[in-house]
Amino acid sequence: MNGFTRKMNLAAYQRVAVEGGIAGADPHGLVQMLLDATLERISAARSCMEKGERVRKAKLLHSCVTLVAELRGSLDLVRGGDLARNLSDLYDYVARRLLLANSTDNAGYLDECMSLIGEIRSAWVAIGPQVRAQHSKDVSV
Q1: What predicted TM-score, i.e. pTM, was given to this entire model?
Q2: Domains, the chain, with CATH or none
Q3: Which are the contacts of 25, defined by CB distance < 8 A and separation ≥ 6?
């Protein structure tokens, strides 16, 4: 098996694993997956920035901005009230910082975005058991 075939097989395996995870995830889990993917890509983009891999860095940061837009789009601004509006503003800020990091090659902006998304992720993980318990109660009614 040559290197190209091996990479194609690995990519197919990873795609199936991701799609399987998405299909089996609850809404809370899907948001967590988006947060995790965003953090992974920011970290990878930071590494690319350090290595001077500008094209890969730009692709990763574009992907991050898309993920942040998905997170922002998932907010229910009516029912979520001030919390949802504040998160929307924070996601907008993070997206703008990611774009700025890309254009200026400033790793400090990436560190800031990782910190902000990391805090949101930590809070999201912390409420997981409560959300899942409520979801189970709603489903059984």
Answers
A1: 0.78
A2: 27-129 (1.20.120.340)
A3: 33
